[in-house]
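quick one, 124 residues, struct below
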Amino acid sequence: QVQLVESGGGSVQAGGSLRLSCLAPRYPFSTYCMGWFRQAPGKEREWVATVSVGTTITLRESVKGRFTISRDIAKNTVDLQMNMLNLEDTAMYYCAAGPTCSVLRGRLSAIRHWGQGTQVTVSS
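---
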């Protein structure tokens, strides 16, 4: 099982920024789609952003223009830069890996590789 380790969560005021980072082992990281998910209290886990092996990026509609995802193959990391945070972004954020980005975005139950999560809290 791929070991994913997130870092970078915290508390920020609305309008602020945070950067999350996920560290994964080189193999099979370099061949997997990587993504960020979030889960707010009482809500289902949802995908936020994915980045393919070929660095194709897909962002959830609600974060477009505010968040971006990037991966660094040499460092084995995938980062989520979050700008203009609002109260609705408050959630536990998880890094995930899967064989394809369509699996990550469409089949939550099929995802086998998760990080432990990092909390993001946005206050007014």
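The first strand starts at residue 5 and ends at 7.
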